[in-house]
Amino acid sequence: LWDMPTVLIAEAGEGRVVRVEGEVRPAGGGLTAPVSRRSCAAYRVQVYERISEADELLFELEDSCALFVEDGSGRALVQPPATLPMSAESYVTTSVLRPPADHLRALLEQHGQLRGGLFHRDLLFTETGLYQGERVTARGQLRGEGGGPKLTAEALAEALHLGRSVMSKLVLAGGLVGMAAGYGLCYWSSVVAYPMNISGKPL
Questions:
Q1: 75 by DSSP, 3-state: which?
Q2: What stretch of H or E contains 56?
Q3: What is the pLDDT of residues 74-100, one digit of tens each?
Q4: Rounded distance, CA 147 to CA 120, Å?
């Protein structure tokens, strides 16, 4: 995926295998992530109950839909591959004295995991997703259709703008400055501030 140059959607030729980069726009109204309630094109949710030192998986949910990739020059409808990139996990926890929010209670009830009582369960909700507005890179064959270009994606990944890092130059400069400062401190303490004479001869 990363070996191909990125092309603008408006300039990509029909039938070519291309790499495009842009923002995610879920198609057909998209999906709503169950925990964060954000608009997305895919999500994965896992709900655990914390029992002693272990976490017991109660249930998990996963769903995805088609999405548009917009790059400023145009947009392409992407039929995503089976494996989708997901953003970092977000967490929501409940405890004995902290009840779940209403939409999480509804989620628990939907899956038969809502229990009554004075005290609440110690639960962990984890969610990853491909959310609206996130930048992705897609590679696949582009075809023109009535509703606009359509990309059958072979691969889809989070857009990583790595570029050339200046960190190596900063580390080198810091090392040289530290070396010079250390040598200067040794010279100043031994020669200027506290010169040492041994048998009448300066060291």
A1: strand
A2: strand 54-64
A3: 888 887 666 676 776 778 888 777 888
A4: 50
